[in-house]
């Protein structure tokens, strides 16, 4: 491109920036009634276009944007062409209405993050063959007309949040991208699988992207998403996508089962620790109470043992005196009683007689002692 052309483009862009700035100062949108033809240009610095209404065609085809690109709060009333453009840094397209066709065919998005948010496409949005490299976000985007994502190069991360198609006959079709060496990490939020069709062969479903959705999905929501995805793959005959989705779903369930087991084990571990602390506290209190009792109880002096002496025994002894004639009388009567006692001949077989006679002898002996 000649230096003269570059100078003219720079001058026109400066004029456009002045017009936009003046309109913003008055709280209005800048009106650009002439075509904005900047094809095959090179922008070495950041490119910003905001709060403008562009009535005529806008052409940025085959244009190289070496700095950041930001288009915000604009309304394009005619066709917009970004085909074969290259975006080397961050790209942001937000709060914009496209009343006519928009072309991004074969465009290259090389920045770390490329954001399409709060957009209305009233006619066709053509991304055929677009090459996405890093993170791409489509959030709150509504396609009233057709959208073409055939043969796109998938980024490493694709986030689709509240992606809609208000047409009753058309859907958002991402089933024929170019095959890459690694699957694209796919984050889905507020997605209607009747309007969004993907071939899961090229994706890995991921969850809980905090950049676009700070509130994480529940386990039930993730389960429903997997089940809906598997059903879609079966419906459209994506057999490889179906097999991959089913395998990823099984891995997802197994991972959550392990997580739940770890949570349960941690819970039981905490309960065990609490129980142990309670037992230790109880034993400590009990030991302290015993120590207090020992400290409060007065000491007892031991009394030494003294064996009794002969003098002590003699002091309590009282002899018993029995007359001799009484002893002789008792011996004579006892001998008579014993002589009158007859042992049965057959003691073993007549034990009853033996014991009866023995009882009578004892009774007589007791009588003798009573007489004495």
Helix content: 25-40%
Radius of gyration: 54 Å
Structural class: alpha/beta
Give me the number of helical elements.
6
Largest sheet: 11 strands, parallel
**Tally of strands:** 24
From N to C, what is the helix and strand string?
HEEEEEEEEEEEEEEEEEEEEEEEEHHHHH
Descriptive notes:
This protein is an alpha/beta fold and about 375 residues long. About 40% of the residues lie in helices and about 25% in strands. Strands 1, 4, 5, 8, 9, 12, 15, 18, 20, 22 and 24 form an eleven-stranded parallel sheet that branches. A six-stranded parallel sheet has the order 2-6-10-13-16-19, with no helix packed on it. A five-stranded parallel sheet has the order 3-7-11-14-17, with no helix packed on it. The chain is rod-shaped, with a radius of gyration of 54 Å. The N and C termini lie far apart (about 160 Å).
């Amino acid at each position: 491109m000649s230096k003269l052309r570059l100078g003219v483009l720079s001058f026109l862009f400066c004029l456009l920036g002045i017009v936009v700035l003046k309109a913003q100062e008055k709280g209005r949108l800048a009106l650009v009634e002439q075509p904005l033809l900047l094809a095959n240009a090179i922008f070495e610095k950041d490119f910003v276009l905001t709060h403008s209404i562009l009535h005529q065609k806008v052409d940025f085809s085959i244009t190289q944007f070496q700095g950041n690109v930001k288009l915000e709060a604009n309304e394009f009333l005619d066709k917009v062409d970004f085909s074969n453009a290259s975006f080397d840094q961050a790209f942001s397209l937000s709060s914009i209405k496209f009343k006519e066709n928009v072309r991004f065919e074969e465009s290259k998005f090389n920045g770390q993050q490329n954001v399409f948010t709060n957009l209305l496409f009233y006619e066709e949005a053509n991304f055929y063959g677009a090459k996405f490299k890093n993170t791409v976000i489509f959030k709150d985007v509504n396609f009233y007309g057709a959208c073409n994502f055939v043969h796109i190069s998938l980024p490493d991360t694709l986030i689709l949040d509240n992606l809609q198609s208000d047409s009753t006959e058309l859907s958002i079709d991402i089933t024929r991208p170019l095959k890459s060496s690694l699957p694209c990490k796919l984050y889905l939020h507020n997605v209607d699988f009747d309007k969004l069709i993907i071939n899961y062969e090229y994706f890995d479903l991921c969850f809980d992207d905090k950049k676009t959705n700070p509130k994480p999905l529940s386990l039930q929501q993730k389960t429903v998403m997997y089940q809906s995805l598997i059903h879609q793959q079966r419906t459209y005959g994506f057999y490889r996508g179906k097999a991959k989705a089913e395998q990823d779903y099984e891995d997802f369930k197994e991972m959550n089962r392990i997580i739940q087991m770890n949570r349960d084990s941690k819970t039981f571990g905490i309960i065990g620790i609490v129980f142990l602390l309670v037992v230790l506290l109880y034993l400590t209190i009990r030991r302290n109470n015993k120590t207090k009792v020992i400290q409060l109880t007065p000491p007892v002096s031991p009394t030494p043992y003294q064996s009794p002496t002969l003098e002590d025994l003699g002091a309590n002894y009282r002899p018993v005196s029995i007359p001799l004639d009484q002893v002789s009388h008792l011996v004579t009567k006892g001998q008579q009683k014993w002589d009158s006692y007859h042992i049965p001949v057959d003691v073993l077989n007549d034990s009853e007689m033996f014991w009866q006679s023995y009882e009578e002898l004892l009774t007589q002996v007791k009588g003798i002692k009573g007489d004495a």
